[in-house]
Amino acid sequence: MRITALLALAAITGAAACDDGFGPINWLATPDTLAVYSLARSELRGLPSAIDLYNLQSVRIEVPGMTGLWDVAFSEEGGQFVLLPPSWFPGVSSRAGIAVIEGQSFEEVIRAPADSASYSITEPVPVRTDVVYVFRTGRRPLSSCIYFAKATAVALDEEAGRLEMQIVRNPVCADRYLVPPDQR
User: Fold this and answer.
1) Do 174 and 136 form a contact (C-beta atoms < 8 A)?
2) Of 8, 16, 67, 152, which has the highest C-beta tally within 10 A?
3) What's the half-sphere exposure (Cβ side, CA atoms, 13 Å) at 182?
């Protein structure tokens, strides 16, 4: 009886972890707009400087090693604004990555790149307003799922060290499409 209950719990947990175990997931392509502040500026400490793509929210980075809670950070390197994957931080290992798509509008980017080499997982990626970013999340605690999102920088206030991004995330585990099924 105990083994059967544990197996049932494992099956339910595994299905729930990927969000698609018990029927179709409805999602919209309406972008969320999130703001983050430069991690490099001491006067901005305490403000959100990273994005949690799973929950689509801006978060504060108190300890860089807390990679299960965020997927991309905003900072400055060499006088340039950059996006940082978690593995950029020493001692942090994450599958989260950033791909840059040039020559396509936000609406034209339909699918995340399949090639893992397309994603920067250890290097800073310059912030630009003329490209689309595709984010691959890291794995969440107690889950083997990864998710994909597309984003574009809609406002960069260099003086304030503030970036606003429009983001659409696919809520289906491991599905590289960046638009709902009815728009493919």
Assistant:
1) no
2) 67
3) 6
d(CA 5, CA 88): 41
Encode pLDDT of 140-153 as tens digits.
777 889 999 999 99
Q: What would the DSSP string read from start to end of 106-145?
A: TTT--B--S-GGGSBSSS-EE--SSSEEEEEPPPPTT---
Distance CA 160, CA 64 (A): 22
b/e per residue, 18-37, with b = 16+ CB within 10 A?
bbbeeeeeeeeeebeebbbb
- Is residue 106 a contact partner of residue 30, using CB atoms and an 8 Å limit? no
At 28, the pLDDT band (50, 70, 90 cuts) reads: confident
Q: Residue 34 carries which side chain, given as an amino acid letter?
A: L
Rounded to a whole number, what is the distance in angstroms from the first to the last CA of the chain? Answer: 46
